[in-house]
Amino acid sequence: MLVDTVRASEFCFKKIKIIKIFYSCLLIILLFSLSACLAENHLHQAIRYSEAAIMADDGKTISKHSEIAKIHALLVQNQKNISSADRIHMAVGIVSLDQAIEKGKFEADDSARKAARNAMFHFKEVTK
Q1: Alpha carbon of 30 to those of 16, 34, 66: distances in Å?
Q2: Within 10 A of 105 (CB to CB), how many other CB atoms are there?
Q3: How far apart are the C-alpha atoms of 27 and 18, rounded to whole Å?
Q4: CB 69 within 8 A of CB 53
Q5: 28, 36, 39, 111: which one has the fewest Cβ atoms less than 10 Å from its Cβ?
């Protein structure tokens, strides 16, 4: 009788251990999936704010939208799941946003728009 109780408890412990391993694996998969989704979301936000910078009326607004786009682009660049070619596009896009911010602050609207358009082009290359 005691032997049966010990066997039953060992079986329960093994079952609990298997369930813990299963849920741990499920949690790891979920975290990787969320990481990929967040990177994609920040990329879309960077594109969206770059487009807003292109459509803006004055240099200060172009600069503001470019700063927000740069924040999202930096978050994408820090992700580990993007390729080296995508990292290059992100880096060039971020440099273009820096130019858009600088030129927007000096009210060089056309140059700032051109730099924002260049950044948007490189960010869209990452989505392909």
Answers
A1: 21, 6, 32
A2: 15
A3: 14
A4: yes
A5: 28
pTM for this entry: 0.69
pLDDT tens digit sequence for 63-117? 999 999 999 999 888 877 788 899 999 999 999 999 999 999 998 889 999 999 9
**Single-letter code of the amino acid located at 108:** A
Asked if residue 107 lies in contact with residue 88, where contact means CB atoms within 8 angstroms, the answer is: no
How many residues are given for the chain? 128
